[in-house]
Amino acid sequence: MVTETVRTVRDVLASAGRVGPFFAVSTDPAEEVDPTWRPLGELAGAPALAQRVAHVRRVLSEQAGAPVAERVAASIALQGLAARLVSAPIAAVALHGVLPALGADTLFWRVSVTGPWPLWTGTDRFRDPAELPALVAEEIAEPLVAGVRALVSVSARVLWGNVASSVAGARRVLADPRATDVAAAVLAHPLLAEAGERRPAEPPDRGWTFRRRSCCLYYRVPGGGTCGDCVLR
After folding, report:
1. Who's near 54: CB < 8 A, 6+ residues apart?
2. How far is CA 202 from the centre of its chain?
3. Is residue 140 domain-resident?
């Protein structure tokens, strides 16, 4: 059951954005004239992706007071981007049972020096909510994983684990019963199915708790540790 009646993509994404900053996608028509917005389909091969990895590496090294390996920074950068890109579609389906037509040509990103990259869309169309797993795994994650691996030698298993962790993380933040089923359907996609497992629920989760089969490598940052869903815990 959806939480409220919505009529437009703008309504749905506004509702999703109220969950938190990682769920926000602007629909302001005035943004369309800004040439700095780039389509999702360009992200995997964009110089901005390499710059993002370098930025994350620099920030982590400064915080740790010691150099951080490039593959560690690449993993953590991808996890942040994945969380940013998958959260709004998951929220739309979980909260309203509809899926805005966010894809390679309709979802746009813009570089931000600090914080999550802003997202924008001008689409007024919906697509079949049953397409959410393919949207997340094939249209969003697969090109991004390939793009990062083209830049840095980092395990695909690690990167897919990061994507799966982002899906489970969005479900936890939503804290909505429907989100449990929606996230489970995404995690069952063949590209994500081996990235982790759903275990009996541990608070604050309901239904199940996600445990990945890899590590995002944050423990390799001096002074870092392991995440709650890490295989090393």
Report:
1. 73
2. 23
3. yes
Residues in the chain: 233
Q: How far apart are CA 189 and CA 151, in angstroms?
A: 26
CA distances from residue 82 to 26, 28, 157 in whole angstroms, order as listed: 17, 23, 15
Q: Using alpha carbons, select from 130, 140, 200, 148 the residue that is nearest to residue 164.
A: 140
pLDDT attached to residue 2? 46
In a domain, 2, yes or no: no
DSSP assigned state of 26: B
Question: Does residue 17 belong to any structural domain of this protein?
Answer: yes
| Interatomic CA distance for residues 104 and 51, integer angstroms | 21
Domain that holds residue 27: 9-220
**Please, what are the averages of pLDDT over each run of 10 residues along the chain (233 residues)?**
67 97 97 96 96 96 96 97 98 97 97 90 97 98 98 97 98 94 98 97 90 96 92 87
Spatial separation of the C-alpha atoms in residues 148 and 30, rounded to whole Å: 32
Please state the separation of Cα 159 from the chain's center in Å.
Answer: 12
Give, rounded to a whole angstrom, the gap between the first and last alpha carbons of the chain: 35
Q: How many domains does the chain have?
A: 1
Q: Collapsing DSSP states into helix, strand and coil, what is residue 99?
A: strand
78: in domain: yes
